Every structure is written in C-alpha cells, then in structure tokens.
Amino acid sequence: MAAMGLAFQSRAAVKPDLRVGFYDATCPKAESIVRQVVENRFRTDPSITPALLRMHFHDCFVRGCDASILIDSTQANSAEKEAVPNQTVRGYELIDEAKKNLEVACPSTVSCADIITMATRDSVALAGGPNYTVPTGRRDGLVSNEGDVNLPSPRFTVPQALRSFSDKGLTLNDMVTLLGAHTVGFAHCSFFRSRLSSSGRPDPTMDPALDATLSKLCGPADSNPRAFLDQNTSLVFDNQYYHQVMLNRGVLHIDQQLSLDKSSAPMVSNFAKNGAVFQQSFANAMVKMGSIQVVVGTDGEIRKNCRAFN
C-alpha cells in the first residue's frame, strides 16, 4: 500500500457548527470505519482517489456539500447524477459500503455528506498527499435536481473558472490549489479532443510530443478513452501537475491556462518549486471547499441510505 501523506493541520476557517471530532461521543469509530473501507478499495484500485476527489468537488459545487450527488433518480425526479458532467462520476459503491458499516455501528448518526468528506481525505493521504484533519457535522440535504448542476467547464479560461470558484467563496489561490488534484486525475478524450492536431485545429499551447501521444490514444471521434492529466507520476499525489503545465503539457484547456494567465502563473511556479507548500495549501483549500453551504444543526437529515431521502 502507498505510504500515508505527511500530516497537516488545516488553517482554513470553517463554520462553527463543523468541528474536528464531531462524532467522538456519538460514533467514536466513525473515522476508522470509513478509513478501513477506503484502504481496502485503494489496495486494488488506486484510481479511487481521483474518483472521490471529483465526487466531493461535484457535490460541493451544487447546493453545497450536502451529499445531493448521491441521490438516485426516481420516476418523479431526475437527480444530479443525470447531469452530463456527473455521468462519469464514480465511487458511489464505496460510499454505500461505508454507510452500511456505519449504520451497523451507530445507526442514523453519521451523514453521507461527512462520509464523502472523510473518504476523500483518506484517499488523498493514501496516494501520498497531505493527511489533514477534517471538521465534521454536516447533515444531508433534502433536494437533488439535475437542473441545479452548473459546474465550471474544463474548457474555461482562468477568469471564467475564477467566477465559478468566487461564487462559492473560494479565491484564485484556492482554485489553482484545487486544480492540483488533477495530479492524480484523468479525463475522457471528449473533454480535450478539440485541442489535438487530429481535430484539425491543434492548440499551439500544447507540447507537440504530448499532442502526438494523445492524438494516438484518443483515435477516431467515436472512441472516448481516458488520459492521465499528469503524464509523469499519474497515480501519486504530488506537485508534478504544476511542472507539467509549465512544460506546456497540460491536458485540459483550463490546466494549461493556469501557467499562461499572468494572475495564476506565479502560483503554479511556486507550487512546482515547493511540494510541501502545495500540500499545506491543498489541505486548507479542501477544508474550505468542504464547508461550502453545509447543512448543519437540525436542518436536513441523516440519511439511512445515501442514495435515497429518508
């Protein structure tokens, strides 16, 4: 198994209703139960780290971190899962397994929203990223609608992407940091095919060798395989992503733009130079993102099954 990442204490400010150790009295084994499920999955599938990072991000950016992305559609309601950006989100069965184990240990106590947050944190540490503490105490939301899904596009420029992040209370530094999760990510060819020479309109900002590699991988337009976003240390959570985009080897348009836009380029350079600074910044940004529009107190509910409202 990969080594756990260095321990980091996040310095991000969070809502007073969320606190580290929220379940210490009501479900003392909550964090270890989630961690065990993640460790078991990671042993056979290290790509669970980018899957959970994406799920957490897609959840928090729509109605806040309330586990609304987990809800299955019914005849009466088309849920968030149906939206095009969410159709390639995966890892739901890991959340189901953790929830099932938690319901045995302490019924109706630990929210699905907190399970996503804890599982993501654990998967990042297993991949060599920061091992940070996360405050818990989120409750699960009561709404999940396909029409509410409005996520930043991988084809955005830096100013366009920043508007999406700013709307959620996140800064440019948070955005550049969180996109560093692409160090373990991958994307289907449909998200970047238009940048390749095989499209007939090659993006001059892409390294020609990478263009050749990706054009060969992606093949004809009716095939849609996946490519790693960090072509160097693809499954290790490190700062290589920033080195790659500085070499014009960003796969997605937004990745490459980070090193070309004068507002974000110095941050990219700083994170490329100093992996520890990136990891501390990532721990802070994840805690901050995990606090977006959280449902707390007596609002929402604690779902018994993460895929359905009680």
What would you say about this model in short?
By secondary structure, the protein is mainly alpha-helical. It has helices at 30-44, 48-60, 92-105, 112-126, 158-167, 172-178, 208-218, 240-246, 253-260, 265-273, 275-289, and strands spanning 7-8, 131-132, 186-188, 226-228.
Radius of gyration: 19 Å
> What general form does the structure show?
globular
Number of strands: 4
Number of separate helices: 11
Strand numbers in spatial order across the main sheet: 1-2
Low-confidence stretches: none
| CATH class value of the largest domain | Mainly Alpha
Indicate the structural class: mainly alpha
Number of domains: 2
Helicity, in percent? 40-55%
Q: At the third CATH level, what is the topology name of the largest domain?
A: Peroxidase, domain 2
Largest sheet: 2 strands, parallel
Distance between the termini: 37 Å
Mean pLDDT: 94
CATH architecture of the largest domain: Orthogonal Bundle
CATH superfamily of the largest domain, by name, is: Peroxidase, domain 2
Strand content: under 5%
Please render the helix and strand layout as text:
Elements: E1 7-8, H1 30-44, H2 48-60, H3 92-105, H4 112-126, E2 131-132, H5 158-167, H6 172-178, E3 186-188, H7 208-218, E4 226-228, H8 240-246, H9 253-260, H10 265-273, H11 275-289
Parallel strand pairs: 1-2
Antiparallel strand pairs: 3-4
Helix pairs in contact: 1-3, 1-4, 2-4, 6-11, 8-10, 10-11
